């Protein structure tokens, strides 16, 4: 009897909290509506005040004469600023018929065009209230035309703009909301009493489920919906898989639940996740690596979201390629613009022979580089190297492709892996130089054993603490969010049966990539020397 009473009491408290949550949401919604209404009212009041001040200024004889002559007058500017202080406005600006400022709170703005684009109405002889952004910020403005001789209906010779910046409107809104605070508190108090009464009424309407069962089901369902969309399972405190998404059921070969977790995924069962959330765990399932996220449940159990690591790596590679090609295009654009500017300057100075020499030098350099790549017959890799050359020139780095580099067309099937490897390794080499002048050399060779790629730089090499975990995801001396490139390269290379090695040679850093020949395809027997 005591336990049942406690359960009903706990359920009642939860229902009261839910009712209060809804009440608070409604209160916030009403406050938003009221704030919007008050904000509009404040803008209207400020607009009327601005219009009144503008009308007064537009009738001043000195202002009319200044506008008619279109010449700044320090005395008129001082008079207008004094009126601005009396009106408690943020600015009063007087402009001529062309919209050029004749009076302004800031002296350095005089003689410059009025901003905001809302002078059409007053210059056409009509008063207007507007909200626009000027040189002082967003404001409510009252715009009044200045008539020749002060006689309405004659020629418009200028415009007066009085404005109140938006913080003034919000100040008025805040004062009004403070006055509503007692009523809000009263509504919350009455809502609390109503929630308690409603909870007592609804307690008897609950189905024949204990509160703990309802809470456990709700937690599981919410956690499943919040987890990853790929493979998702829910596990209770007894280690039983109680819920599995369709993708999870296919991967785990689990047609129905519940089923012991140890039976379908032993390595995950041995993990025994505690109360801490765990993300990006790498676990094996029937020999395949999966990335796993674990979300603990209140009261025990947990929800697991998982995805095949190969899919994640493929997606990361696509993003890396896209980012790399964007950098390459940006570097090419920047570099070509510099060259065109140099040629343009020489031609304008009449130094045509020197411009021709610069142009010929660029043509020779491009031809020499293309000649080095003539035997690399994987177009995407050639495009990447050309882009990296432009990137290196932008960074002030000497980038070279070793003479005699070659690659036959049979490697097109592994172009993604080669582009990923060369792109990441060359970018790491650029970063290793850290803005200092240096050299980066790429060597590509092919023999009966497969393909060998070396990326060599004159940087300081890998620091000791990072060297021990060089190919581990997140290992980097460049800060958080880095250290995923080498891990991704190694995963792609190893997936093809290749190797990724790091050595120091002659005071230089060298990363070596070796890939075996594509299955069933003969590879050229030529070897390339360093």
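-> sequence recovered:
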């Amino acid at each position: 009897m005591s336990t049942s009473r406690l359960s009903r009491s706990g359920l009642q408290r939860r229902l009261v909290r839910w009712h209060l949550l809804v009440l608070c949401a409604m209160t916030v919604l009403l406050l938003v509506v009221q704030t919007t209404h008050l904000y509009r009212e404040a803008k209207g009041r400020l607009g009327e005040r601005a219009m009144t001040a503008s009308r007064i200024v537009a009738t001043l004889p000195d202002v009319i004469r200044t506008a008619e002559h279109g010449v700044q007058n320090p005395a008129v500017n001082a008079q207008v600023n004094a009126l601005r202080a009396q009106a408690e406005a943020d600015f009063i600006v007087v402009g001529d018929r062309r919209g050029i400022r004749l009076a302004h709170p800031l002296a350095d703005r005089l003689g410059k065009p009025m901003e905001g684009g809302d002078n059409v109405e007053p210059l056409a002889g009509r008063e207007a209230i507007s909200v626009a952004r000027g040189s002082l910020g967003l404001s409510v403005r009252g715009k009044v035309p200045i008539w020749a001789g002060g006689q309405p209906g004659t020629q418009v010779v200028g415009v007066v703009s009085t404005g109140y910046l938006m913080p003034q409107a919000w100040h008025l809104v805040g004062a009004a909301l403070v006055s509503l605070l007692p009523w809000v508190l009263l509504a919350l108090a009455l809502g609390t009493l109503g929630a308690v009464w409603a909870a007592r009424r609804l307690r008897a309407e609950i189905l024949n489920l204990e509160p703990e069962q309802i809470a456990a089901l709700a937690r599981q369902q919410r956690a499943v919906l919040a987890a990853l969309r790929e493979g998702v399972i829910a596990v209770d405190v007894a280690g039983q898989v109680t819920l599995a998404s369709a993708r999870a059921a296919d991967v785990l070969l689990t047609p129905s639940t519940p089923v012991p977790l140890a039976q379908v995924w032993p390595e995950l069962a041995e993990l025994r996740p505690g109360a801490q959330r765990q993300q990006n765990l790498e676990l094996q399932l029937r020999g395949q690596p999966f990335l796993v996220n674990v979300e603990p449940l209140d009261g025990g159990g947990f929800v697991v979201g998982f995805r095949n690591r190969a899919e994640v790596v493929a997606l990361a590679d696509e993003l890396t390629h896209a980012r790399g090609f964007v950098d390459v295009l940006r570097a090419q654009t920047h570099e070509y613009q510099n060259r065109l500017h140099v040629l343009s300057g020489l031609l304008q100075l009449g130094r045509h022979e020197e411009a021709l020499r610069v142009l010929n030098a660029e043509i020779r350099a491009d031809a020499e580089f293309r000649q080095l790549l003539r035997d690399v017959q994987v177009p995407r890799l050639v495009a990447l190297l050309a882009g990296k050359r432009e990137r290196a020139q932008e960074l002030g780095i000497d980038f070279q492709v070793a003479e005699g580099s070659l690659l036959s067309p049979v490697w097109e099937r592994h172009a993604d892996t080669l582009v990923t490897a060369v792109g990441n390794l060359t970018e790491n080499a650029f970063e290793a130089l850290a803005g200092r002048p240096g050299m980066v050399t790429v060597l590509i060779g092919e023999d009966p054993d497969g393909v060998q790629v070396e990326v060599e730089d004159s940087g300081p090499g890998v620091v000791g603490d990072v060297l021990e975990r060089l190919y581990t995801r997140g290992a980097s001396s460049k800060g958080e969010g880095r250290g995923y490139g080498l891990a991704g390269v190694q995963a792609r290379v190893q997936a093809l049966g290749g190797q990724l090695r790091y050595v120091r040679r002659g005071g230089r850093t060298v990363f070596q990539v070796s890939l075996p020949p594509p299955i069933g395809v003969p590879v050229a027997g030529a070897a390339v020397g360093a």
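Residues 1-8, 525-530 have pLDDT under 50 and may be disordered.
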